[in-house]
Amino acid sequence: MEGLRAFRVRVGCYSGGRYAEQPRWVEREGVRLEVAAIDSRWREQDRLGFRVTLEDSQRLLLYYLPEEDIWSAVEVS
Fold first, then answer.
1. Alpha helices of the chain — where are they, by DSSP H?
2. Residue spans per domain, the chain
3. Which residue among 32, 49, 61, 76 is the one 20 to 30 A from 42 at the CA level?
4. What is the number of other CB atoms lying within 10 angstroms of the CB of residue 53?
5. Distance between CA 15 and CA 13 in Å, rounded?
6. Residue 48 pairs with which residues in a beta bridge?
7. Residues 14-60: pLDDT tens digits?
8. Which of 28, 35, 74, 41 is nearest to 56 (CA)?
9. CA 4 to chain centre
């Protein structure tokens, strides 16, 4: 998708057998919002991906890079 801009976020997750099984909240610039729904999830070679809807109806693509322990996000419509 042309024009997408990723930004760093903090993410709180449920972690059962492994880390980052289910995002529970996302914090950006000091504002924390609960994840209302996980719309989809997938695994790529070097990262995990989640499409989520936040409590304010904002939709994000969340990406977690385990090797770096970094979360990033992209706003989607």
1. none
2. 6-76
3. 32
4. 15
5. 6
6. 43, 64
7. 887 777 889 999 999 899 999 999 999 999 999 999 999 999 999 99
8. 35
9. 15
pTM: 0.86
8-state DSSP, 67: T
Residue 10, both tokens: 């903090």
CB 60 within 8 A of CB 71: no
**According to the model, what pLDDT value does residue 13 have?**
92
**Is there a contact between 72 and 7 (Cβ–Cβ < 8 Å)?**
yes
Looking up tokens 């989607």, which residue turns up?
Answer: 76
Nearest-angstrom CA–CA distance, 47 and 42? 9
d(C-alpha 60, C-alpha 49), whole Å? 10
